[in-house]
Inverse folding.
């Protein structure tokens, strides 16, 4: 299955507690919120730096983040 924007955003929306690999390191998805338009705001606890980052779902998809 192709990782289309829509499928990534749907998977992201139901991924609380799951691991995510981003371009800045590995993290755990803590919380998601809708924003204006089609984007999702995602709080990710970064395990490498022991801090929480707020990230854009669209930007995560554009950068090739993987949820798993």
């Amino acid at each position: 299955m192709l990782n289309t924007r829509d499928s990534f955003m749907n998977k992201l929306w139901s991924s609380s507690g799951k691991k995510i690999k981003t371009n800045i390191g590995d993290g755990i998805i803590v919380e998601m919120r809708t924003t204006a338009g089609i984007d999702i705001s995602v709080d990710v606890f970064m395990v490498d730096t022991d801090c929480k980052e707020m990230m854009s779902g669209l930007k995560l998809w554009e950068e090739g983040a993987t949820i798993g």
In short: The mean pLDDT is 93.
